[in-house]
Design goal:
Order of helices and strands: EHEHEEHEEHEHEEHEEHEH
Number of helices: 8
Structural class: alpha/beta
Strand content: 15-25%
Distance between the termini: 20 Å
Shape: elongated
Helix content: 25-40%
């Protein structure tokens, strides 16, 4: 019987994970398949977990936080982050939630860092941004969220000026702005204040060079898309499922 793995999300016609794992299973001749589980609402998750052939799931937008209440246990890191992107099905079909986003982000960010980076701006406040904040804190980089509807300890896009950009040399886009097909879209920043000491990191991987990244390159900043992070978190998922 084939082992089934899959991605839990909403409107996930595209899926990096499906392509990555299908290719892996074929190349390594594994009796496994990887499916997209496109749920209109998180309540439908209960129907999926009744399938005894499912051995592990990835979780994407918008269920990284909502899925937690359906799990039996949380890895300490996932608990601290407050978001899950990997679910391990234990032998007794008990479900444990993990977060491999923070690992993928950390390892893909390290080569881009320079000595001037002490503070970061995180654009967006969804499930992915929580893992990013956790990773930055572990790297001893102070970070603050930027939101269209900011909380008391967050910045709004209107707050961003030359002083804030001078202080925060790392900017991570955790919003969907600029994703294919709407590739002209981008976060509303004062890009004119970017320098060659800035690093712009976009969690988007399609297109491979977003408008956000292009605007950084124009100012000599280092840029990266989210592809390396996705590859690393997928490899970590496989490790978790098989540990």
């Amino acid at each position: 019987m084939k082992k089934i793995y899959g991605l839990l999300g909403k409107n996930i016609g595209y899926s990096f994970s499906r392509g990555f794992f299908s290719e892996k299973f074929e190349k390594e001749n594994l009796e496994c398949e990887y499916n997209n589980f496109d749920l209109k609402q998180i309540q439908d998750f209960k129907d999926i977990i009744n399938n005894p052939n499912i051995k592990g799931l990835n979780v994407t937008i918008p269920y990284k936080e909502e899925v937690i209440s359906y799990l039996d246990d949380l890895d300490p890191v996932a608990k601290e982050i407050g978001a899950v992107n990997v679910i391990k099905f234990n032998k007794d079909q008990k479900l444990t939630g993990f977060n491999s986003d923070y690992y993928g982000f950390t390892e893909s960010l390290k080569p881009l860092l320079n000595k001037t980076i002490k503070k970061a701006l995180i654009l967006g406040t969804g499930g992915a941004s929580k893992a990013i904040s956790y990773a930055l804190t572990q790297l001893e980089i102070k970070n603050v969220f930027v939101s269209r509807n900011p909380d008391f300890n967050e910045l709004s896009y209107n707050d961003l000026d030359e002083d804030i950009l001078r202080e925060h040399k790392l900017i991570i886009n955790c919003t969907p702005l600029g994703t294919h097909p709407d590739i002209e879209n981008h976060p509303n920043l004062p890009y004119e204040y970017l320098t060659e000491n800035h690093v712009l990191y976009d969690l988007i991987y399609n297109p491979s060079e977003t408008t956000f990244m292009k605007k950084g390159l124009e100012k000599g900043a280092k840029v990266s898309n989210g592809l390396q992070m996705l590859i690393l978190q997928a490899k970590k998922s496989w490790e978790i499922w098989n540990s």
